Amino acid sequence: MEVNGFIIKQAREDAGLPRDTFTTICSSADLEQIEAKNEGTLEIILDICAKLEIPYHQVFPETILLTEISLLNIVRCLHLRQEFSSVLFLLDTYGKKITYDNARIVGHLMYFRAYANLFGIRDTQKAVHYFQRAYTFLHDEKRYELLVLKGLATCYQANEEKKRARIFFERAEQLEEKMNTQLQLGPSYYQAACFYADRGNQEKANALCDEGIQTLLEVNMITGLEDLFFEKAVIQENMKEQIELLKQADYYANLNDNRTLKELINQKLTSI
Hints:
Blueprint: H1 5-14, H2 28-37, H3 42-52, H4 56-59, H5 62-65, H6 68-80, H7 84-93, H8 103-119, H9 124-137, H10 142-158, H11 162-178, H12 186-198, H13 202-218, H14 225-234, H15 239-255, H16 259-271
Helix pairs in contact: 1-2, 6-7, 6-8, 7-8, 8-9, 8-10, 9-10, 10-11, 12-13, 12-14, 13-14, 14-15, 15-16
């Protein structure tokens, strides 16, 4: 992802930290690429910002923060880190300025906003509002529909509206029973995404990759994330987005010691 590498370099140098201080986060070569070429893997950039105590919005160009898919990727990562104040700041500051073309992205951002309001600042009234808005966009994504139902149930329970809470918990349980339990697993999402991609349905394949990535991360499971990010990368038409996703795939391939996929990723990156 594009990043203001000079800000990271300046903060690192002001703190008197050599590049090899960050080896638990990334290699010195990765850090040099971020600082000198203004490009890096999103997860690594966020890790570095956290270590140097740099506000996240300062290191990303405004063009990135005002692009719907880039903002979604950043917000999703911050959501999984439970950095709810940062999620709300980015959505309030930049999310409202974007002209959205993709209803799915709007639904996802509404969900993340609702969750941040519920668990970050304990504002159940706002959380209900945004969960309800998210629900209107996510009927075709059962995984998110399920999460929204559970979110609404939690809000009503917190407000001691026990009857409403029970209704939504029951609806969530019924939906969960209908869902194919095999689709909770990363490999099943990956295989399904490949199936649709091979038949030219990139939109469905992309949605399955997103859903699989979210499912695995929510249960703190990284095995299989590299395959999903790789499949999502190869079906993208935008070259910059493809490169970013390949780097994310490489990040998780390293964590999972998936050497075979690392070779494929390197081949793809070299050919671009």
